[in-house]
Amino acid sequence: MTESKAMILGCAGKSLTEDEIRFYRDERPWGFILFARNIGDPAQISDLVASLRDAVGRPQAPVFIDQEGGRVQRLRPPIAPNYPAGSAIGALYRQDRAAGLRSAWLLARLHAFDLLRFGITADCLPVLDVPIEGASDVIGTRAYGKDPKTVAALGGAAAEGLLSGGVLPVMKHMPGHGRAFSDTHFELPTVDTPLEELRRHDFAPFKALSHLPIGMTAHVVYSAVDPDGPATTSERVVREIIRGEIGFDGLLVSDDTSMKALSGDFPQKAAAILAAGVDIVLHCNGVMDEMAGIASKTLPLSGKSLERAEKALSYVKDRDQTAETEARAEFARYFEAVA
């Protein structure tokens, strides 16, 4: 089998162009990611997912999506219900812990039903960031709460819900995006918080769930660790914090390289990410010239990164026996608006 390159790529529209098919065939990305621009009717989604896998000749190539609930949800009615944001799950948890944990699991299990019917096999969830007062609302209501224990508990339940439904969870954004005072889609934030407080507050949920198979980095500078570069391109943050203190030895994926927070052109971004020890470069917007730049500096998966990728794909076994109709009815008892 031809080796896959250490990258996950998007595509421009609802079906692949001949240029995209040729590019994916030649450059062999390990996986793909879908956005709202790629979503039409059910048959179209299934056809697009199948054509992505056909292009690289790998029926098991992972296809990712951001399906959280709230404002970050790529599948919308009539394809999937509008689901509540993480903060709504957190509010229920504060009233009734058992109900909160169950609803977090159920929501993720429903995501798995929604995604797998189209062949989408990985969800960029749970969000394990712990926001502080005054931080950018780029995380905001996406977070389960403002204390690490709540976030870890609900994030763990969500991850188990996805896994029970045969979908890979991707925890984000390591080692913590909750203190960022600007939106990384547009600029690079710097966090000047002392390391001990970062350990107590920001890193804690990721450490609690460090056994999960895939994590995504944050485009955030942590000056107490490395004042010169964001986690995504910082060898020190990756080695000392993510791999070291947090203890995560799963597959580490960059946040989107088409966001404005990272400096340099696309070949420079890809090279810096891989040099830092991140396993996979993510590029989402489907712009061909940008993807070509990423591909130009991305090598085939090998060594420890290849091991982590193979282990991640083997993490999901058989789906459980949950009945979809019953799960939807149970979830509606917690959140009737999305029944």
Give an account of the 3D structure.
With about 350 residues, this protein is of the alpha/beta class. It has one domain: Alpha-Beta Barrel (TIM Barrel). Helices cover about 40% and strands about 10% of the residues. It is built from twelve helices and 13 strands. It has a six-stranded parallel sheet with strand order 7-6-3-2-1-13, with helices on both faces. The protein has a three-stranded parallel sheet with strand order 8-10-12.
Strand order of the largest sheet: 7-6-3-2-1-13
- What does the overall shape look like? globular
Major β-sheet, in short?
6 strands, parallel
Please indicate the percent range of residues in DSSP E strands (runs of 2 or more): 5-15%
Cα Rg: 19 Å
Helix share, percent: 40-55%
Quick description:
With 339 residues, the protein is an alpha/beta fold. It has helices at residues 18-27, 42-56, 86-95, 97-116, 148-164, 195-202, 204-208, 235-245, 266-275, 288-296, 303-314, 324-334, and strands at residues 5-9, 29-34, 63-65, 67-69, 72-73, 122-123, 168-169, 171-174, 190-191, 214-217, 221-222, 251-253, 281-283. The protein has a single domain, classed as Glycoside hydrolase, family 3, N-terminal domain (TIM Barrel), CATH 3.20.20.
Task: Set out the fold topology.
Elements: E1 5-9, H1 18-27, E2 29-34, H2 42-56, E3 63-65, E4 67-69, E5 72-73, H3 86-95, H4 97-116, E6 122-123, H5 148-164, E7 168-169, E8 171-174, E9 190-191, H6 195-202, H7 204-208, E10 214-217, E11 221-222, H8 235-245, E12 251-253, H9 266-275, E13 281-283, H10 288-296, H11 303-314, H12 324-334
